[in-house]
Amino acid sequence: MNKNNPLLNPFNTAPFSKINNEHFLPAIKYLIEITKTDIGTIASNPEIPTFENTVEALENTGGQLDRVTSIFFNLNSAETNDEIQKIAQEVSPLLSEFGNDILLNEKLFERVKQVFDSKETLTLNKEQQTLLDKQYKGFSRNGANLSEVDKKKLRKIDSHLSKLKLKFGENVLAETNAYELHITNEKYLSGLPGGVKEMSAQTAKEKKKAGWVFTLDYPSYVPFVTYADNRELRKKIALAFGARAFQNNEFDNQSNVLEIAKLRHQRAKLLGYKSHAHFVLEERMAKTPEKVISFLEELKDKAKPAAQKEFKNLETFAKELDEIDQLEKWDSAYYSEKLKQKLFNLDDEQLKPYFQLKNVINGVFTVASKLYDLNFEEVSDIDTYHEDVKTYRVTDTDDNLVAVFYADFHPRTGKRGGAWMTSFKPQQIKDGVNDRPHISNVCNFTKPTKSKPSLLTFNEVTTLFHEFGHALHGMLANTTYKGLSGTNVSWDFVELPSQVLENWCYEKEALELFATHFETGEVIPMELIEKIKASATFHEGMQTLRQLSFGMLDMAWHGKDPSAIDDVTLFESEVFSDTQLYPDVKENCMSTAFSHIFQGGYSAGYYSYKWAEVLDADAFAYFQEKGIFNKKVADKFKNNVLSLGGTQDPMDLYINFRGQKPNPEALLKRAGLIK
Known about the structure:
Layout: H1 21-43, H2 51-59, H3 63-78, H4 82-103, H5 106-117, H6 126-140, H7 148-178, E1 181-183, H8 194-206, E2 212-214, H9 218-227, H10 231-242, H11 254-270, H12 276-281, H13 289-322, H14 332-344, H15 348-351, H16 357-372, E3 375-379, E4 390-395, E5 401-408, E6 420-425, E7 428-430, E8 433-435, E9 438-442, H17 458-475, H18 495-502, H19 508-514, H20 526-535, H21 540-558, H22 568-576, H23 595-598, H24 608-626, H25 631-642, H26 650-658, H27 665-670
Parallel strand pairs: 5-9
Antiparallel strand pairs: 1-2, 3-4, 4-5, 6-9, 7-8
Helix pairs in contact: 1-2, 1-3, 1-4, 1-5, 2-6, 4-7, 5-6, 7-11, 9-14, 13-21, 16-17, 16-19, 17-18, 18-24, 25-26
């Protein structure tokens, strides 16, 4: 063991400043070998298999390896470069192979199976039963019962898939970074708010260019297509956004999409499942693709008439305003914003001064404090991977450490788009010690400029609350086993804590805690709060239809045999035909940049956003009924949902909190789709 490698020495918080890229590969290789040895010891234990010497022992292996890989893969998302990406291409198949070494280890599986077969005679608590079930299924669902020949096939598929998924993500990032809209004539900035112009001038300066530069990063792209009066330029940047990894160049993802979908199907068939979706959903709340499809169809039937009506109104409005005969995709955000301003006299530029990033962070902390008795103290003695990253010590009312929290909020080269929560250290109770978690939120919010601090759009405010909801799920984890802790829950349950927290952004009682004007300190006026609430269901039919179409595309790729598909766009347009409002754009493709399902963990799971909306609308209805800061309801949510992770069936956890199964009507009412 190399004592000079900081990843191989004991550490509490991640020692980012001491880590160099060259430390990762040797550390991961070494830790794989150490973990293999530990697993070999468990598998060859001559004693009769017990819960303690087999299941619990296996759960307690590989802690250091998990921590090092979580640091590495978060850096590959938040602070990557060519070298890290190259290491990722080497590391991913190694980890995939190692995962298979465990799951296809016959002696180890035999021991777990013996404990599983005798579980009726054991006195296990609920969490122990869940761990045993999860471990047994982990083996049986991933090839432990296969023949040697099929096990080899499975290993080959998994290794190939891990590389393809990485390549997919690298291509999307490369295409996002490669594009810029460079404007030198100010007349082309007509319609853009001052803050957006200032930010794009700053981007141009950073790139050593005159004028203004717009990129495909969300804080740059979204304001441009929302406010720029120049329709041709909106079209230009929208086409570039929609063509990411779909340009028949070295970063094209079409073959990657087809190959990933086909390999996933082959893998599922090898394991005895009808499709990848059948394999995935067996372990989700939804259980079957049929149930997911009927769920999506049912919502579509409610949303589509509303969406068509909204679209017709938008067409009429654009025609009256600008004589637009045919609304195109690059008109969507622009005319929606104009219509919203007309109907509600509300736009993001009115709201942004009340949402200074610093205040919104304090706001989400205050909401968490009022609900769950947490304190957040910014500290400077925790190592970070970039100067933008802020760190916090999170404590309870008795000053006990609850968690360490990292926050990384601004876009930069080398950081993928979007927003996510991750963990650098899991929560677990080991040797009588409750080891507290280290949780991180990564987002891409508007940067501060010379004249203004970072001011968020309302959409960015809800994104911050959303990701912080995930963070609370991680921070408040209180389980014995790390594999069942925090966000280690059914994928269609994981979005409940994040989506439910977004609701506080619309409530007067919560907004008055943090929405103050960055210059005057004035609390957001009541009329603006009322407009936010009134406009919350604006174009909800169109938004819902759009989300459902993504879920349907995901199920189409993963719910049946994709081997006959050879044209990604043709396949995609057939799937979208029933939910389509805007004309097709032949230069664009959704799938080639659909990172959620082809790189992230959402394959056969994108529906879970809508599924969790049903849960969150029903859960928040309970808070509204009793008071949005009601301690009893908050404690029930904390004790039954946030702290228990994946220790029990999610529906049981939900019913324990709510006293009933979720009622879909709460969502439809909130969305204004039913009265």
